[in-house]
Amino acid sequence: MSDTMALETPLGRLVIFEVPQDETSPSVTNRNLKLLDSNGKEIWTVEPRDKASDDPFVGLTSIGDAYYAFTWAGIRCEISLQDGSILNKKWVK
Fold first, then answer.
1. pLDDT in tens, 33-71
2. How far apart are CA 51 and CA 26, in angstroms?
3. In the 3-class helix/strand/coil scheme, how is 14-67 assigned residue by residue?
4. Which residues touch 14 (CB under 8 Å, ≥6 apart)?
5. What is the pTM of this model?
6. Please, which residues bridge with residue 66 across strands?
């Protein structure tokens, strides 16, 4: 997987990875967000989301101390930098 978007954080680099076009498993497509340390080592992969849909992350932003990842379907997920858990979700499209 190659990275498509990254955002620097106090704990490392938040990275969205490109999902291969032939990949259809939500366990892969819905978990294309990782936090990497300064050496590029994975700290965590975002927690699993809806296991029934193919909805990869496509965008990142931060507002103050909050970090958000956006899915292709328009869901904004607030991400915990500590462990990759999704703190809340909101449809914004």
1. 999 999 999 999 999 887 667 889 999 999 999 999 999
2. 6
3. EEEECCCCCCCCHHHHCCCEEEECCCCCEEEECCCCCCCCCCCEEEEEEECCEE
4. 6, 7, 8, 33, 34, 35, 60, 67, 69, 79, 81
5. 0.89
6. 63
